[in-house]
């Protein structure tokens, strides 16, 4: 084949390939628009939990984990009340006989995944700014005073508080947990010998509650008018 014919053929092929690529790129948005949109998830679709979160949900609603056998996490953090108290009491009643009043109002557990884990105070540089509204308030941590840096540490507090679920110590919680209807499931998730190591068992139990609060969308629905 003559040289000029070979050169012409190569140029033509290159230009045609480039033109085809441009046409494909131009038509891509129209093809995407014509494609059927994915069907939205039904409004009543159930959340898919990790194994730990599924256990945490069972524990969250289990009143048998309290000394009275009548108080669960949900007793004070009611799902139908934005995970806050279900009544108008300034502080909820608990303890072994359900007659001891807590020392503080119950905070909502909504949007715990957005809270700064570590307690901090970003202080203004000058004294005049510190005394004005420009000075930042302390932030971070869980609980009203931010004493807990990790959510699973906060989860243990009501279980051991004498005015709340009133367990004497973590061992008392584990004794109840070991006889719970879901104890076998707890072993499946965290190991058949999990209860032989009390420290690890209690840590994993609190981790399960933490995962439930982080994974269940009802804790962070983002359905207010400001979320759209």
TrEMBL record:
SUPFAM superfamilies: Cytochrome c (SSF46626). It is found in: Cell envelope. Transmembrane segments: none annotated. Residues 51-181 form the Cytochrome c domain. One of its GO terms (molecular function) is metal ion binding. One of its GO terms (cellular component) is cell envelope. Its main location: other. Gene3D superfamilies: Cytochrome c-like domain. Keywords: Heme, Iron, Metal-binding, Oxidoreductase, Peroxidase, Signal. Residues 1-34 form the signal peptide. This is Cytochrome-c peroxidase.
């Amino acid at each position: 084949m003559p040289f000029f014919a070979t050169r012409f053929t190569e140029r033509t092929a290159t230009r045609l390939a480039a033109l085809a690529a441009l046409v494909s790129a131009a038509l891509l948005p129209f093809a995407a628009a014509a494609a059927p949109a994915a069907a939205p998830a039904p409004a009543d679709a159930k959340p898919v939990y990790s194994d730990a979160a599924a256990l945490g949900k069972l524990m969250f609603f289990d009143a048998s984990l309290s000394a009275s056998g009548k108080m669960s996490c949900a007793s004070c953090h009611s799902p139908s009340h934005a995970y806050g108290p279900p009544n108008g009491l300034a502080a909820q009643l608990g303890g072994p006989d359900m007659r001891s009043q807590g020392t503080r109002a119950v905070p909502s557990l909504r949007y715990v995944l957005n809270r700064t884990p570590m307690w901090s105070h970003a202080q203004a540089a000058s004294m005049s700014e510190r005394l004005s509204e420009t000075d930042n308030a302390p932030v971070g941590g869980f609980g009203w005073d931010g004493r807990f840096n990790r959510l699973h540490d906060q989860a243990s507090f009501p279980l051991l508080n004498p005015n709340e679920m009133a367990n004497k110590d973590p061992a008392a919680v584990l004794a109840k947990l070991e006889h719970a209807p879901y104890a076998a499931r707890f072993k499946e998730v965290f190991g058949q010998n999990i209860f032989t190591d009390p420290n690890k068992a209690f840590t994993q139990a609190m981790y399960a509650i933490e995962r439930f609060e982080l994974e269940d969308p009802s804790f962070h629905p983002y359905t207010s008018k400001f979320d759209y």
